[in-house]
Specification:
The complex is a heterodimer of chains A (259) and B (257).
Chain A lengths: L2 E2 L14 E2 L16 H9 L11 H4 L11 H16 L2 E7 L4 H13 L2 E4 L3 H8 L15 E6 L4 H9 L4 E8 L2 E3 L1 H9 L3 H46 L4 H14 L1
Antiparallel strand pairs in A: 1-2, 3-5, 3-6, 4-5, 6-7
Chain B lengths: L1 H7 L2 E3 L11 E3 L65 E5 L3 E4 H14 L5 E5 L6 E5 L12 E9 L4 E7 L3 H13 L5 E5 H17 L6 H6 L11 H6 L3 E2 L2 E2 L5
Antiparallel strand pairs in B: 1-2, 3-8, 3-9, 4-7, 5-8, 6-7, 10-11
The chains are: A alpha+beta (259), B alpha+beta (257).
Chain lengths: 259, 257
């Protein structure tokens, strides 16, 4: 290979000692040009080495639990749930065993006559919302398909009567005026008489003893008065001479078991 | 999203109906799923203006030279990375060259016809980012011996370097809609190319930067070449000093840091 010896220039530069004069193809070729072996070696030596920490990142880094912010619809539904639970005094949970939509419509209509509403909410939202409120004991009810039937007035009797004929939905539990009821509890609640009657009963129950005191106090003198009256009667009869001493004894016998 | 659900017929606006639902958006679907499906808000293309002539324009085979002169080969116009048009300016998507090469009129026609056929002119638009062929390529006649001067101009080409955007694409469309036919076109080009969006291009550049930063190898091409270690400059050219072994000929050497 022809080569030129290295020589220095007048301006202070220099040529490398070996300059290659003849070579094969140009730098840019159509075919894949074979690289000089030294260049291949250089590329092999200067390859990219990725960082490799002693403990891989995936062992240390905790998997990111993406805390998803509640989307708009979710927020809306949450508000709905909140409103429902605050406004309505009676909240019942029914298990929905695939009721037909026409039957559901009829049931809804019948319930609306008593101003009782039916609500459908996704369980996910209900659980996430109710877990933090005072209704957390209702959580086990919200698994699977369910319907929430609510009303502002606690009309358990009307509800049970309306729902009695629909076999596809069954009562799971209820929360009436912040008191949890099971199925039997609701039935009993419905059998309770109205408020006025109950109040009257309580009042009478409380005043039972006091009402009796008067009678008790008066019983002694009343009995004595009755006995004395009888005795007077006997005396008057004896005075008339119609009845003998047997009748007096009879009266006495009558009198003693009575006292 | 609530409007979306109303359109789907799943939720009803409580105000309109008389069946006495107290909530504004009462769910009427009798079978509610376990989770709540959240719908991603689709992207809005309000700021995208579709120009009057959305399709790719016809490019001439031969430029309008008064006196067509023969040019030198100048193969350096293919070597190395592109500096001129390597970012997406007007559209969101495009085809980028991943190697150097020449585009001739046949390639242009192929691109123009395919893209104009596959795109929807009402919602999309496309723009050329390379010039019409301007570089004359000479050919000697068949069976000619060496010598006798330079050949006559046969055809014209456009040189393309690595990283140059060929076609830009934009409009009210997602990358997934556009990618099939853009990659179809990219496969037929004489150099390696691919369909990109602004995001993918950014990612590519970021990855390169990251690699350069994370490299654990103390020996880099740049270091060895500039210091002329082991007299390696015998086999390297000043081009390699500038581009640190990333380019060899018209191609880009992959996985070079």
């Amino acid at each position: 290979m022809a080569a030129l010896w290295g020589r220095s220039l007048s301006c202070g530069g220099w040529f490398p000692p070996h300059q290659i004069v003849r070579h094969g193809s140009k730098a840019v070729t159509r075919h894949r040009k074979p690289m000089h072996f030294l260049r291949q070696k250089l590329l092999a030596v200067t390859e990219y080495i990725p960082p490799k920490p002693a403990i891989p990142e995936r062992c240390i880094k905790a998997p990111k639990k993406e805390v998803q912010e509640p989307f708009g619809f979710e927020k809306l539904l949450r508000r709905e749930v909140e409103v429902t639970f605050n406004e309505n005094k009676m909240i019942t949970v029914f298990q929905n065993n695939s009721i037909k939509s026409e039957d559901l419509k009829l049931l809804r209509h019948r319930l609306l006559k008593h101003d009782i509403r039916m609500k459908f909410f996704p369980n996910q939202i209900l659980r996430s919302y109710l877990g933090n409120t005072k209704y957390r004991n209702l959580l086990p009810l919200f698994i699977g398909h369910n319907i929430i039937i609510v009303s502002k007035e606690p009309k358990a009797k009307e509800l049970l009567q309306t729902v009695r004929n629909t076999t596809q939905i069954s009562l799971l539990g209820a929360c009436i005026e912040d008191v949890l009821f099971s199925r039997q509890g609701v039935v009993n609640y419905s059998r309770l008489p109205g408020m006025q009657v109950v109040r009257g009963e309580i009042v009478s129950g409380l005043t039972l003893m006091t009402s009796q005191t008067c009678q008790l106090l008066q019983s002694g003198p009343v009995h004595l008065a009755a006995l004395l009256e009888q005795y007077l009667k006997q005396q008057s009869e004896a005075a008339t001479g119609l009845k003998g001493p047997e009748s007096l004894e009879q009266k006495e016998i009558q009198g003693s078991p009575a006292s | 999203m609530a409007i979306l659900l109303r359109r789907l017929g799943l939720a009803r606006l409580g105000i309109d109906t008389n069946s006495g639902c107290t909530g504004l958006y009462q769910i009427d679907a009798k079978v509610l799923p376990a989770g709540l499906k959240t719908y991603e808000i689709p992207p809005r293309y309000d700021d995208v203006i579709i120009p009057e002539k959305p399709k790719l324009k016809f490019l001439n085979k031969v430029p309008n030279y008064k006196k067509p002169r023969r040019w030198m080969k100048r193969l350096g116009d293919i070597r190395g990375p592109a500096i001129r048009a390597n970012t997406l300016t007007r559209g969101e998507y495009g085809i980028v060259a991943l190697g150097g090469g020449y585009l001739h009129w046949g390639h242009f026609e192929m691109m123009r016809l395919t893209i104009n056929r596959k795109m929807d002119p009402k919602t999309m638009f496309a723009r050329w980012r390379v010039n019409a062929p301007y570089k004359p390529i000479t050919r000697k006649g068949l069976g000619q011996r060496m010598g006798g001067g330079k050949g006559a101009i046969d055809h014209y080409v456009t040189p393309v370097k690595y990283g140059r955007v060929i076609v830009e694409f934009g409009g009210r469309c997602a990358f997934e809609e556009v990618e099939p036919f853009l990659s179809e076109v990219a496969k037929k080009l004489p150099f390696p190319a691919k369909a990109i969006s602004k995001k993918t291009l950014e990612e590519m550049l970021k990855e390169d930067e990251q690699k350069a930063r994370n490299n654990q190898n103390p020996w880099t091409f740049e270091r060895i070449a500039t210091m002329n270690m082991m007299g390696i400059r015998k086999v390297l050219s000043p081009f390699d000093l500038k581009y640190h072994g990333k380019f060899f000929g018209k191609s880009r050497v992959p996985n070079r840091v």
